Amino acid sequence: MKAVLRTTDPTQLAFAKALLDGEDIACFEMDVHMSVLEGSIGILPRRLMVADADHAEAVEVLRDNGVDGVVD
């Protein structure tokens, strides 16, 4: 799996997941519990992971829709 997005913004994460789901690209959110432990002050980003084979397409989908924090 490869990271396709790193962000501290939960709304941006939800938007990115919806975009990827719409393109039938499976994704998995990591570091959810770490960001909760830090007290929601927004210093620990969450990562959105996709399969290696889907990474290029996922990056293209997110960039085409103006999502910030996309990881190459």
UniProtKB/TrEMBL annotation:
Alphabetical list of Gene3D superfamilies matching this protein: UreE, C-terminal domain
InterPro entries per record: DUF2007 (IPR018551), N-reg_PII-like_a/b (IPR011322)
Lineage top rank: taxon: Bacteria
Segments forming domain DUF2007: 1-64
Cross-referenced Pfam families: DUF2007
Protein's UniProt name: Putative signal transducing protein
